Amino acid sequence: MPAARDNATALELARDEDFWQRVAESYTVEPGPINLENGYFGRMTDKVLAAYKSHIDYVNRSNSVYVRQQFDSHDSEQIRQQLAELVQVATEEVAITRCASESLQVLIRNYNGLQPGDQVLICDLDYISVQSAMRWLAKSRGVEVIEITHVHPASYDSLLDSYEAAFKQYPRLKLMALTHVTHRTGLVMPVQAIAERAKAHGIDVILDGAHALAQLDFKLDELGVAFAGYNLQKWIGAPLSLGFVYIARERLGSIDADMGDTRYADDDIRSRAPYGTPNIPAWMTLPTVFEEHYAMGGAAVKQARLNYLRDIWVEGVRGLEGIEVLTPDDQRLYCGITAFRFTRHEDQQPLLEKLLQDYNLFTVGRTGAGCGPCIRVTPGFSTSVADLQLLVRALTELA
Fold first, then answer.
1. Sheet with 374-377: strands ordered across
2. pLDDT digits over 311-350, tens only?
3. What's the pTM value of the predicted model, to 2 decimals?
4. Which of 211, 308, 366, 387 is deepest in the core (most CB within 10 A)?
5. Which residue from 134, 78, 72 is spatially nearest to 101, judged by alpha carbons?
6. DSSP letter at 71?
7. Rounded CA gap, 56 and 280, in Å?
């Protein structure tokens, strides 16, 4: 991995094609379609992959001798400390899990501040497993689920207004899900502003940060949320099977130990993570993952690069007759992920398939948002400017 120049700004590095060519060379990419669906999970660099394979071999050789004597008592805690440093919170506020969905389900099912008759809030842009978990609360706790649909096209004010209206209309709201980067369209929610309004109404926020970590440059403890779940297998570039849960230390008592877990003390956040043997080699790879992340310039440079690539294709097609870009251009509300649709077609799947068959461009369809079915485009760190220029040509011809 090439080291980012210390004297270069994030915006300068975002446009430094020589630097990103060297970054691209740090990944081994399978020949085939141009991947514009990098949002599912992240590709490991060759260095990370080599470390992961080495750790698999070592754990397989040493078996429980290493795990019992070294990993469980020492190495895992050092890795957790490095994770806490990455997100700039205290070590006792994070616990490693298998993914963001698991983290969020833990927070939702173990939140102990609900009584029968209380209300919980979701929206059309929340992840399906989050919506399902909140609906599960209705059955298990006797609460009412309130679901709102955001106005399209979204704006900073319309998003705040949607939540403020819900807070006023439903005075029994006690808990809400909030998604930092929505997986359907890439819309970035103004988390801090929404969390401030929720707090004023006595509503706790559980934040879905699955797509946010390392795609957005933010400070976790400044977002104003006490509970959050994150992935390490997307924009950080860790092996699959890694995420973490965040609980602000002063709010740990609001989340019960998972299934009454007694492995750790009640004041230890690790009792809130589901019990089970973790992917130990993947955990052991995290120090190398963090090293590669910092070498690339960290979240600030990654965000600048992904936004730059996004702007190339969006600026090339926004305004084309027959194409609607669904994600706004307000820099507070977008990231590398952006969605669009062909307005002359209700079913987007045939056009998605033409992008693949005729132009060798791999994208993914998304449904469930109030704005309708769409095609999601997500560049990655090995995506070139030429790849996005090809997308512009393809959309222009297909529009």
1. 323-325, 338-342, 374-377, 364-366
2. 999 999 999 999 999 999 999 999 999 999 999 999 999 9
3. 0.96
4. 211
5. 134
6. I
7. 8
